[in-house]
Sequence to fold (406 residues):
Amino acid sequence: MKRNIYLMYAIAFLHGMVFYGPVATLYRQAQGVSVFQITVIESISLFLCILLEVVWGVAADRIGYKKTMVFCCVLYFLSKIVFWRASGFEGFLAERVMLSVVIAGLSGVDTSILYLSCKGETENGRKGKENSPDVVETSRNEAENGRDETESSQKVFGIYNSLQMAGLLSASEVFSLFVGENYRLAGLLTVFSYGGAAVLSLGLKEVSPEGADRICFRRLKETVFQTLGNRRLLLFLLAAALLKETHQTVTVFLNQLQYEKCGLGNAAIGYLYIAATLLGMCGVYSARLTEKTGNRAAGLLFGVTAAVSCAVPALTGHALPSVCGILLLRVSNSLFEPFQTEIQNRMVHTEYRATALSIHAMLMDGVGVGTNLVFGALTEQSLAAAFWFGAGICMAGAVVMRKLLG
Fold:
């Protein structure tokens, strides 16, 4: 299954190559879209994701994870063509509608492919040990094998996320050195990278469990009730959603507004984007951190750090502290994402993994719809107020993490 893992790594890298990333908000504004319209589009997108999540999860379990991945990568490519040619609210809304289908389709599928591919590798290694005359199987060895599998999958998730950041780094370097004010060129280059990812997805091998195509309404209902009946899981998803949505809004949209407020130009914003991307690659150390601190301390650390990161730019209009706060938020989220993905997958106790993870994503997107609208409304009034809101909900997430992971 190493082939799957390496192909997913390459796809992650190419999907990370968003050449307009350093000026995503400014790009849209240049095409006549206001900040509030941007957040409205984001909320519509999340709402569509909620409607499509479970449908896509069931479809993925029926047709297979590879076919789902290929379809979504192709549609992803097409959506970037639409973005490249978009102008005004309607154009960017159309792109985001397509993107909603992609996000809902990939939700749980990409991580399922990685998780099951890691599991396959671990089982193959275990079989090799069983066939060795020098190895005596004990319950202790089995426990260690289980722990190795968990650490291996979290490590793979960390590398996967970091390669997305590596793609962003490469794209942002090209933007800063060669693209500059030519926003349309940045959009076109992104089309090429996503086309490459669509081609690579054709080489994946199927890993979805045999018989999963027979999912029926009764099994779907059982999966839904199993999720909704797990109070611990629901609280974890709530806390994770608050942290992730704050990071998404701040590092994609609000950061550029804060940088402009501090008097920074496009070139400086591009270099800061490179710095943020480099720091985003620290997700590879997530497994090592949680192994040393434990889940409870790690969850609390991620939440408190995110809250402090938002509070700093809320308190000042100076460039240095604002930059430090936003970069710290990127570090915290990069370490948190593999941690979150590992815990979510560990909480899935059904063969219909894509369906279960889609339900998780649906619940988290529901939180995101609300936070996006609040962020947008507050930004129209005061950028500092939006940052304070982010600090508040991240602190709430930290409190939930502390109680939940004890």
Notes: The radius of gyration is 21 Å. Residues 124-148 have pLDDT under 50 and may be disordered. The chain has one domain: 2-404.
